[in-house]
Amino acid sequence: MLDTANPVVTITRAGGIARVTVDNPPVNALSQALRQGLWDAVARLDADPEVSAVVLICAGRTFIAGADVSEFGKPPMAPHLPDLVARIEAAQKPWIAAIHGSALGGGFEVAMGCRFRVAAPEASVGLPEVTLGIVPGAGGTVRLPRLAGVALAVDLVTSGRPMRAAQALAEGLIDAVIPGDLGEGATGFARAALTRPLPAPVSARPVTPPPAGFWEARAAAVAKAAKGATAPGRALACLRRAAEAPFAEAMAFERETFLALRATEEAAALRHVFFAERAAPRPAALRGIEALPLRSAAVIGGGTMGAGIVAALREAGLPVTLVERDAEALARGRANVAAIFAGGVMRGKRTAAQAEALEAGVIGATDYAALADVDLVIEAVFEEIGVKRAVFAALAQACRADALLATNTSYLDPRAIAEGLPNPGRFLGLHFFSPANVMKLLEIVPVPETTEATLATGFALAQRLRKIPVQAGICEGFIGNRILKRYRAAAEDLVRRGVAIAEIDAAMRGYGFAMGPFEAQDLGGLDIAFLQREGARAAGQIVPETLGDILVRAGRKGQKTGGGWYDYAPGDRRARPSAAVTELLAAQVVPGAAMGAEAIAAALVGEMAAEGQAILAEGIARRPEEIDLVEIHGYGFPRWRGGPMFATRVRG
Ligand code: 3H9
User: Fold this and answer.
1) Best of 22, 64, 69, 129 to mutate for ligand 1, by most ligand atoms within 8 A of CB?
2) Which of 50, 71, 129, 631 does the annotation list as catalytic?
3) Structure pTM?
4) Helix axis angle, 352-360 relative to 327-346, nearest 10°?
5) Which tens digit of pLDDT belongs to each residue from 509-555?
């Protein structure tokens, strides 16, 4: 029997087990129509004497992926999700959630309202609300501790991390993993379950109190990981209430917290980033353009950047040829790659056997003849135009005419690198960020000759590497390094106006960066940017003397020389304000009015946004939200602030 009264919820019945199928593309988000459909389904199936259990299953790529994030700006409409979850939980016939894809947020809350949860082996479940600046709003923080214990609930809810089916089964979040046909398997599970006494609904289960000191310890850890974001701490408060107060009181507290957070700037910022990230891999201009097949890749240069790119390509499953100029350099490059894979083993990211397999997929070569049949080559050699041109001349000889050729330059003009290349349509810039196997940003820089198919392949590569692609036009530093230059210059201007270096760094940490601009330079080394400026000066450009130049000329290149903007004791990375620096810069500093931390951060973020606006006006970036993605994924801008353009209200 088929019921089609609701456009997104269909009910079928067979042999006493009803099947409620949700079909609300693309991700079965909990729109009002879906909530209403499920609401009505409970009443209808409870009233049907032939039905003894209900399987809730979804069509399409996933189970219910949560509340509809695009509805968050609007007033909530009945039936409200907490009421719907309570209604499913109180149904006279037990509901069984049959999960494929992801059961996230409100989707997992609905599943926790069901009497049982079963899942396909590749499925995952979780409560990612804190990543959207909110807390679960339909009982997630109240039911999860009852289902799986307080400690696990705290881990999952305050991090927002999803959990795969096998582990979810081991932790008691789900009741069975079902290989093969999920609907059939869930129906079989339902029949078997009906032969035994039913477990209590999740809301009726007790919470085991955690040991003394648990909440205090977790509060400190959560605050540290949150880097200034408020939602994780508020989620912890909800979980504590769930462990200490009766169910109804904890539900009311969670709902109140959810509604308050939903209206905050932080939540708006995180929604902005959520939608920007989803739009980034599919630029409108490339709609309908097919990417070229990528079956193999090569990297020229096995330094820090090259090795990181090799690792990223291997982790994406591509066989990689690593080319160096001689056997000795190749051995060093291979060692760099091996160290990255070994680091992954040490951090528990992979097994030694997996690391070995990754390493085995790297073919070393000192002769470009090895590249005769590769689909993609990424050049990551020294930033010197002559060296890079020689590489591309050799690649033009060695590679197939349709092989994609990419440069990873940060500052050179890709047009100059590509000059004289036969078939320049297959050339583009792919600007990775160090460490390239970790950092999510990939700036994609076409030259005027780059074909649409080449560009589309750059985007497809980013997706394969699980990176966030942002197209950039050609200018010095592209999007990210150009903004970085302005940011550093603005920070130096504050120093010239008498603001203490340590105060500026502390202000930016307070804003949410892991490090301030001067600490970051001390870590990375002041000499790289210095050498660049010196190069430009030698080429006849007028580059005013920076404060950083004064320090480098005095031998202060950062932590590696025992001092840069700060002093460092041997073996200690803690930055100490430096009397030597004060003296070196004294002639440049004209003390002005004192500045508070918020004013410092506002001034520097304002400068970033002003550069972003110039970049937009010149067509170097296409949309303000893409500049925000560059800053968040390449430069440590706090995600929960939404990026410099969002934070300063420059919106597309
Ligand atoms: C919540 O549930 C609060 C509750 O506790 C309380 C309620 C009272 N809403 O990522 P994709 C769109 S908070 C609206 O490329 P995939 C997305 O924009 C929510 N739209 O697919 C894109 O649109 P377009 C907690 C959404 O297969 C399209 O769907 N839930 C939502 O790579 C495809 O998305 C989450 O945070 C949404 N919730 O990955 C889950 N989700 O095609 C967020 C997606 O127009 N979602 N869209 O560009 C995900 O993590 C992934 O989408 C998922 C699928 C893993 C499900």
Assistant:
1) 69
2) 129
3) 0.92
4) 150
5) 999 999 999 999 999 999 988 998 998 899 899 999 999 999 999 99
